Amino acid sequence: MITAGAILGNAERVFAYRQHINWSVILWEVPGAIFGSVMGAFILTKVKVEWITVCVAIFLIVSALNYFLKNFRSQEKDKKGLSVLAWYFLPAGFVYSLLSGILGSMGPLLTPFYIGFGLQKEELLATQATARLVVHTIKIFSYGIFGLLLSQHLAYGLITGLAAIPGNYLGHMALQRISERRFRQLVMGFVMFSGFLMLWQDWFLLF
Q: 110 lies in which domain range?
């Protein structure tokens, strides 16, 4: 259901920001993402890996803390917390898609990489949405092939995706009113919040 809804929501963002897509990132990320999506969907039919979300949550929190601490120490407006080269997106795309195939969605897992690569506001959203559209499309076909996809999943996903469209529109209006620096702070703040939320949801695994 999450995957089906994400296809529509990301497709709308791709269309809205299509002129800002960074194709050098896409060309590196998509090959790994395709393979990872299929493998993740297959693994979902065989095992349940509960500790994955805990590990991802810790990564998100550490990445966000690293970003904020480096900015605080340097006092440089455009300082990044992670220096990323284009080829990093090949293994990163694979890992993201693998975990996404198992858990449904990995949220902002790759956001620190996009920030570290230097993508600006619209460019980050356009590139991320394009990559996720590919990932979720491959996943939905993989779920169908491996017998996980039901008609009600598509129906609920369609409702979720349609609900995302007005949210995307309001987000676009807000994006035009904030600076690049504030955008990065908000994004990394959301990354940290997501990490703590994932830890809270899987708190029982830690004790």
A: 2-205
Q: What is the DSSP letter of 114?
A: H
In total, how many domains does the chain have? 1
- What 3-state class would DSSP assign to 81? coil
Handedness of CA 42, 47, 196, 104 (dihedral sign): positive
Contact between 90 and 31 (Cβ < 8 Å): yes
Query: Which residue is listed with tokens 């795309």?
Result: 93
From the list 62, 54, 48, the residue with the least C-alpha distance to 202 is: 54
Q: What is the dihedral of CA 141, 142, 145, 151, to 10 degrees?
A: -50
Q: Which of 113, 64, 59 is nearest to 89 (CA)?
A: 113
Q: How far apart are CA 188 and CA 174, in angstroms?
A: 17
pLDDT by position in tens, the chain (length 207)? 778 888 888 898 899 899 999 999 999 999 999 999 899 888 877 776 667 777 788 888 888 888 787 776 555 544 445 678 999 999 999 999 988 888 777 778 888 899 989 999 999 999 999 999 999 899 888 888 888 777 877 888 788 778 778 888 888 888 888 888 888 888 889 888 988 888 887 776 555
Tokens of 179: 């600076």
Residue by residue, DSSP assigns 41-56 as: HHHHTT---TTHHHHH
Q: CA–CA separation, 207 vs 196, rounded Å?
A: 16
